[in-house]
Specification:
This protein is an all-alpha fold. 86% of the residues lie in helices and 0% in strands. The chain has helices at 3-43, 48-70.
């Protein structure tokens, strides 16, 4: 057997194993973040009044940012 072939094969196998481990870790991290989002959604009750207030606040912020972009003094 050629030593170069052995080194190349070992490198290829090592790269494959490293890639599979990285993919498994990435999938685990995504599952963790999904669980956090699911838990957060369950613990926060949706209140229509609060939602409307937050939406109005966001619209007001948007108006102010558009005014700043247009160069208008508030």
């Amino acid at each position: 057997m050629n030593p170069t072939l052995i080194i190349a094969s070992a490198s290829l196998i090592g790269t494959g194993i490293t890639g599979m481990l990285a993919l498994k870790g990435w999938q685990g991290w995504l599952a963790l973040k999904q669980a956090e989002l699911d838990k957060r959604g369950e613990t926060l009750p949706v209140n229509p009044v609060t939602t409307r207030i937050e939406l109005a606040d966001l619209k007001e912020r948007l108006r102010k940012l558009e005014a700043i972009a247009a160069g208008v003094e508030l």
